[in-house]
Design brief:
mainly alpha; Arc Repressor Mutant, subunit A; elongated
């Protein structure tokens, strides 16, 4: 049977009716787009592969329990599941990605801080720690846009696609996130000065 000529909907029906090849073709067809969107968020090959596998475990459950709705397109469903798993990972781990250069060390360590004193370095490290804590305190929509933009290096168009909102909404969430961070930083500085 020629599966390449079938659309996603037909492949889903094949899979639901017991033909595993339907799902295999769907995975083959969309693998690179799904994997890339996960990798862009987590910036870690092994973690991306794990989340990719978890995504398809959830997809299989959704299909087998009949919760897949006919109008929904397959790819947006899978991307939404993947995106939720990434956000869950960061939420559960209570960690915001460290900005690294790929070799596993924080990029802030190599941005011309060689001549700083130990005291300056401690202040800088504390500031980054504080900022990561404040990011965790943002409302979830603002936090995810900020993480995707600054840590995942995604464009606002990509963020809008993954979170299924308009570009204007994604931009608005980013603006609110930055304003909230600014307010929290000012409040923190005031409380330090008062103490």
């Amino acid at each position: 049977m020629k599966l390449q000529g079938k659309n996603d909907q037909e492949l889903i029906h094949l899979y639901i009716s017991g033909q595993e090849a339907g799902l295999e073709e769907l995975i083959r067809r969309h693998k690179s787009k799904i994997y890339t969107s996960i990798y862009m968020l987590v910036k870690d090959q092994y973690l991306a592969e794990d989340i990719f596998q978890d995504t398809f475990i959830k997809v299989v459950k959704t299909l087998k329990t009949g919760r897949y709705n006919e109008e929904g397109k397959f790819l947006p469903l899978v991307l939404r599941i993947a995106h939720n798993l990434v956000i869950d990972y960061f939420r559960k781990d209570k960690r915001t990605p460290v900005i690294t250069n790929g070799d596993g060390f924080d990029i802030f360590d190599v941005l011309g801080f060689y001549d700083e004193s130990i005291e300056d370095r401690m202040i800088r490290e504390q500031t980054h720690k504080d900022l990561r804590k404040l990011i965790q305190m943002l409302p979830s929509e603002q936090k995810e846009v900020l993480i995707m933009r600054h840590y995942g290096d995604m464009s606002f168009k990509e963020i809008a696609d993954v979170t299924q909102v308009s570009i204007n909404t994604a931009l608005g969430r980013m603006r609110y996130a930055l304003n909230n961070l600014r307010k929290m930083l000012q409040a923190k500085e005031l409380s330090i000065k008062v103490n």
